[in-house]
Amino acid sequence: MLPGRGQDGRAARLARFLGTRVAWTEVGDGEFFCPGCGGDRNYQRLTGRRRFTLLGVPVVPRGDTGPVVECAACRRHFGTDVLDHPTTIRFSAMLRDAVHTVALAVLAASGTSSRTSLETAAATVRAAGFDDCTEEQLNALVEALAADTGRVYGRPCGAGLAIELHEALDPLSPHLAPAGRESILLQGARIALADGPYTPAERDALFTVGSALTICTDDVTLLLAAAARTPS
Ligand SMILES: [Zn+2]
Protein backbone atom coordinates (compact mmCIF):
# COMPACT_ATOMS: atom_id res chain seq x y z
CA MET A 1 0.00 0.00 0.00
CA LEU A 2 1.30 3.48 -0.90
CA PRO A 3 2.03 5.78 2.04
CA GLY A 4 -0.61 8.43 2.62
CA ARG A 5 -3.11 6.62 0.47
CA GLY A 6 -5.57 6.19 3.29
CA GLN A 7 -5.48 9.88 4.20
CA ASP A 8 -6.04 10.96 0.59
CA GLY A 9 -8.90 8.55 0.37
CA ARG A 10 -10.51 10.05 3.43
CA ALA A 11 -10.05 13.58 2.05
CA ALA A 12 -11.63 12.55 -1.23
CA ARG A 13 -14.57 10.95 0.56
CA LEU A 14 -14.99 14.10 2.66
CA ALA A 15 -14.90 16.29 -0.47
CA ARG A 16 -17.68 14.17 -1.96
CA PHE A 17 -19.59 14.49 1.26
CA LEU A 18 -19.09 18.21 1.83
CA GLY A 19 -18.04 20.75 -0.76
CA THR A 20 -18.94 23.84 -2.69
CA ARG A 21 -20.46 23.95 -6.09
CA VAL A 22 -20.87 26.91 -8.39
CA ALA A 23 -23.96 27.09 -10.57
CA TRP A 24 -23.15 29.25 -13.57
CA THR A 25 -25.69 31.37 -15.41
CA GLU A 26 -24.99 32.77 -18.83
CA VAL A 27 -25.38 36.55 -18.93
CA GLY A 28 -23.94 37.30 -22.35
CA ASP A 29 -21.78 36.08 -25.16
CA GLY A 30 -19.60 37.31 -27.96
CA GLU A 31 -16.20 36.92 -29.51
CA PHE A 32 -12.90 37.47 -27.75
CA PHE A 33 -9.24 36.68 -28.06
CA CYS A 34 -8.70 33.66 -25.82
CA PRO A 35 -5.38 33.90 -23.98
CA GLY A 36 -5.74 30.21 -23.12
CA CYS A 37 -5.89 28.68 -26.57
CA GLY A 38 -4.60 31.75 -28.43
CA GLY A 39 -7.12 32.83 -31.03
CA ASP A 40 -10.49 34.47 -31.75
CA ARG A 41 -13.15 32.36 -30.03
CA ASN A 42 -16.71 32.58 -28.90
CA TYR A 43 -17.21 33.19 -25.21
CA GLN A 44 -19.99 33.07 -22.68
CA ARG A 45 -20.03 35.51 -19.81
CA LEU A 46 -21.13 33.74 -16.69
CA THR A 47 -22.08 34.71 -13.17
CA GLY A 48 -22.09 32.03 -10.56
CA ARG A 49 -23.89 31.25 -7.33
CA ARG A 50 -21.72 29.43 -4.89
CA ARG A 51 -23.38 26.87 -2.65
CA PHE A 52 -22.23 24.47 -0.02
CA THR A 53 -23.04 20.96 -0.99
CA LEU A 54 -23.75 17.96 1.15
CA LEU A 55 -23.44 14.66 -0.66
CA GLY A 56 -23.31 16.64 -3.92
CA VAL A 57 -26.61 18.39 -3.17
CA PRO A 58 -26.46 22.20 -2.89
CA VAL A 59 -27.63 23.29 0.52
CA VAL A 60 -26.53 26.73 1.70
CA PRO A 61 -26.20 29.66 -0.71
CA ARG A 62 -22.74 31.17 -0.37
CA GLY A 63 -23.20 34.31 -2.43
CA ASP A 64 -22.39 35.34 -5.96
CA THR A 65 -19.16 34.68 -7.72
CA GLY A 66 -17.73 35.82 -11.01
CA PRO A 67 -18.54 37.14 -13.49
CA VAL A 68 -16.15 35.11 -15.58
CA VAL A 69 -15.61 34.64 -19.28
CA GLU A 70 -15.64 31.05 -20.50
CA CYS A 71 -13.96 30.16 -23.79
CA ALA A 72 -16.24 28.04 -26.00
CA ALA A 73 -13.22 26.18 -27.37
CA CYS A 74 -10.97 25.41 -24.38
CA ARG A 75 -13.63 25.96 -21.66
CA ARG A 76 -11.16 27.82 -19.50
CA HIS A 77 -12.42 30.67 -17.31
CA PHE A 78 -10.92 34.17 -17.28
CA GLY A 79 -11.60 37.48 -15.56
CA THR A 80 -13.75 39.84 -17.62
CA ASP A 81 -10.67 42.04 -18.26
CA VAL A 82 -9.75 39.63 -21.09
CA LEU A 83 -12.55 41.35 -23.04
CA ASP A 84 -10.47 44.55 -23.11
CA HIS A 85 -8.11 42.83 -25.51
CA PRO A 86 -9.33 43.12 -29.13
CA THR A 87 -9.88 40.02 -31.25
CA THR A 88 -7.35 39.41 -34.01
CA ILE A 89 -9.95 40.51 -36.59
CA ARG A 90 -10.78 43.67 -34.66
CA PHE A 91 -7.10 44.40 -34.09
CA SER A 92 -6.22 44.19 -37.80
CA ALA A 93 -9.19 46.43 -38.63
CA MET A 94 -7.95 49.00 -36.06
CA LEU A 95 -4.46 48.82 -37.52
CA ARG A 96 -5.76 49.29 -41.07
CA ASP A 97 -7.90 52.28 -40.03
CA ALA A 98 -4.95 53.78 -38.17
CA VAL A 99 -2.64 53.66 -41.20
CA HIS A 100 -5.41 55.03 -43.44
CA THR A 101 -6.04 57.97 -41.09
CA VAL A 102 -2.32 58.70 -40.72
CA ALA A 103 -1.92 58.66 -44.52
CA LEU A 104 -4.81 61.12 -44.91
CA ALA A 105 -3.45 63.40 -42.19
CA VAL A 106 -0.02 63.55 -43.81
CA LEU A 107 -1.45 64.08 -47.30
CA ALA A 108 -3.77 66.81 -46.02
CA ALA A 109 -0.80 68.50 -44.37
CA SER A 110 1.35 68.13 -47.51
CA GLY A 111 -0.54 70.91 -49.21
CA THR A 112 0.16 69.81 -52.73
CA SER A 113 -0.90 66.23 -53.22
CA SER A 114 1.93 65.24 -55.51
CA ARG A 115 1.76 62.05 -57.53
CA THR A 116 4.66 60.47 -55.61
CA SER A 117 3.05 61.28 -52.24
CA LEU A 118 -0.25 59.80 -53.38
CA GLU A 119 1.46 56.70 -54.78
CA THR A 120 3.43 56.14 -51.58
CA ALA A 121 0.31 56.74 -49.46
CA ALA A 122 -1.86 54.37 -51.53
CA ALA A 123 0.81 51.64 -51.44
CA THR A 124 1.11 52.06 -47.65
CA VAL A 125 -2.66 51.88 -47.14
CA ARG A 126 -2.94 48.82 -49.42
CA ALA A 127 -0.14 47.10 -47.50
CA ALA A 128 -2.07 47.81 -44.28
CA GLY A 129 -5.03 45.81 -45.61
CA PHE A 130 -7.23 48.11 -47.78
CA ASP A 131 -6.45 46.06 -50.89
CA ASP A 132 -8.33 48.25 -53.36
CA CYS A 133 -7.17 51.69 -52.15
CA THR A 134 -6.19 53.91 -55.08
CA GLU A 135 -4.40 57.24 -55.44
CA GLU A 136 -7.63 58.78 -56.78
CA GLN A 137 -9.62 57.65 -53.75
CA LEU A 138 -7.12 59.14 -51.34
CA ASN A 139 -6.96 62.37 -53.30
CA ALA A 140 -10.75 62.65 -53.28
CA LEU A 141 -10.84 62.02 -49.52
CA VAL A 142 -8.17 64.65 -48.83
CA GLU A 143 -10.06 67.19 -50.95
CA ALA A 144 -13.33 66.31 -49.23
CA LEU A 145 -11.65 66.70 -45.84
CA ALA A 146 -10.31 70.12 -46.81
CA ALA A 147 -13.70 71.24 -48.14
CA ASP A 148 -15.52 69.83 -45.13
CA THR A 149 -13.42 71.54 -42.51
CA GLY A 150 -12.80 74.66 -44.57
CA ARG A 151 -9.11 74.14 -44.05
CA VAL A 152 -6.55 75.51 -46.44
CA TYR A 153 -4.09 73.05 -47.92
CA GLY A 154 -0.69 73.05 -46.30
CA ARG A 155 -1.92 74.37 -42.98
CA PRO A 156 -0.92 72.55 -39.81
CA CYS A 157 -2.95 69.56 -38.77
CA GLY A 158 -6.43 70.95 -38.13
CA ALA A 159 -8.39 70.24 -34.98
CA GLY A 160 -10.76 67.98 -36.92
CA LEU A 161 -7.97 65.80 -38.21
CA ALA A 162 -6.27 65.75 -34.82
CA ILE A 163 -9.52 64.38 -33.37
CA GLU A 164 -9.70 61.78 -36.17
CA LEU A 165 -6.12 60.75 -35.43
CA HIS A 166 -6.83 60.36 -31.74
CA GLU A 167 -10.01 58.40 -32.46
CA ALA A 168 -8.12 56.00 -34.72
CA LEU A 169 -4.95 55.70 -32.65
CA ASP A 170 -5.94 56.03 -28.98
CA PRO A 171 -7.76 52.68 -28.73
CA LEU A 172 -5.04 50.94 -30.69
CA SER A 173 -1.81 52.11 -29.05
CA PRO A 174 -2.23 50.27 -25.71
CA HIS A 175 -2.26 47.00 -27.68
CA LEU A 176 0.85 47.81 -29.70
CA ALA A 177 4.44 47.09 -28.73
CA PRO A 178 6.73 50.15 -29.00
CA ALA A 179 8.04 48.87 -32.36
CA GLY A 180 4.45 48.63 -33.67
CA ARG A 181 3.72 52.21 -32.63
CA GLU A 182 6.95 53.46 -34.21
CA SER A 183 6.14 51.57 -37.40
CA ILE A 184 2.87 53.50 -37.85
CA LEU A 185 4.65 56.82 -37.33
CA LEU A 186 7.39 55.82 -39.79
CA GLN A 187 4.83 54.88 -42.44
CA GLY A 188 3.45 58.42 -42.11
CA ALA A 189 6.99 59.83 -42.27
CA ARG A 190 7.71 57.98 -45.52
CA ILE A 191 4.55 59.41 -47.10
CA ALA A 192 5.63 62.91 -46.03
CA LEU A 193 9.15 62.35 -47.41
CA ALA A 194 7.95 60.99 -50.77
CA ASP A 195 7.96 64.47 -52.34
CA GLY A 196 10.94 65.93 -50.50
CA PRO A 197 11.88 66.96 -46.95
CA TYR A 198 9.20 67.44 -44.28
CA THR A 199 7.28 70.70 -44.50
CA PRO A 200 6.46 72.35 -41.15
CA ALA A 201 2.82 71.26 -41.58
CA GLU A 202 3.85 67.65 -42.24
CA ARG A 203 6.08 67.67 -39.16
CA ASP A 204 3.18 69.06 -37.18
CA ALA A 205 0.86 66.30 -38.41
CA LEU A 206 3.48 63.64 -37.61
CA PHE A 207 3.93 65.01 -34.09
CA THR A 208 0.17 64.74 -33.61
CA VAL A 209 0.41 61.13 -34.82
CA GLY A 210 3.28 60.49 -32.40
CA SER A 211 1.39 61.95 -29.46
CA ALA A 212 -1.74 59.91 -30.27
CA LEU A 213 0.50 56.84 -30.34
CA THR A 214 1.92 57.89 -26.94
CA ILE A 215 5.45 58.20 -28.36
CA CYS A 216 7.30 60.96 -26.46
CA THR A 217 8.30 64.11 -28.34
CA ASP A 218 12.04 63.35 -28.14
CA ASP A 219 11.53 59.92 -29.68
CA VAL A 220 9.31 61.38 -32.43
CA THR A 221 12.10 63.87 -33.24
CA LEU A 222 14.69 61.06 -33.42
CA LEU A 223 12.46 58.77 -35.47
CA LEU A 224 11.58 61.50 -37.98
CA ALA A 225 15.25 62.41 -38.34
CA ALA A 226 16.21 58.75 -38.84
CA ALA A 227 13.48 58.31 -41.48
CA ALA A 228 14.71 61.39 -43.35
CA ARG A 229 18.26 59.94 -43.45
CA THR A 230 17.13 56.53 -44.69
CA PRO A 231 16.36 56.31 -48.41
CA SER A 232 13.00 54.60 -48.87
ZN1 LIG B 1 -9.74 29.13 -25.31
Quick summary of this structure?
The protein is an alpha+beta fold.
Computed Rg: 27 Å
Unreliably modeled segments: none
Read across the widest sheet, the strand sequence of neighbours is: 1-2-3-4
Strand content: 15-25%
Number of strands: 4
Cα-to-Cα separation, first versus last residue: 74 Å
Number of helices: 8
Helix vs. strand class: alpha+beta
Bound molecules: zinc ion
Biggest beta sheet summary:
4 strands, antiparallel
pLDDT averaged over residues = 86
Order of helical and strand elements: HEEEEHHHHHHH
Please tell me about this protein's structure.
With 232 residues, the chain is α+β, with helices and mostly antiparallel strands. Helix content is 50%, strand content 22%. It is built from eight helices and four strands, in the order αββββααααααα. 28% of the residues are buried. The mean pLDDT is 86. The site of zinc ion (ZN) has 8 residues, from loops.
Outline the secondary-structure elements.
Layout: H1 5-17, E1 18-34, E2 39-54, E3 57-71, E4 77-79, H2 88-110, H3 115-127, H4 135-149, H5 159-169, H6 178-193, H7 200-212, H8 217-229
Antiparallel strand pairs: 1-2, 2-3, 3-4
Helix pairs in contact: 2-3, 2-4, 2-5, 2-6, 2-7, 3-4, 3-6, 5-7, 6-7, 6-8, 7-8
This protein binds zinc ion.
The site of zinc ion (ZN) has 8 residues, from loops.
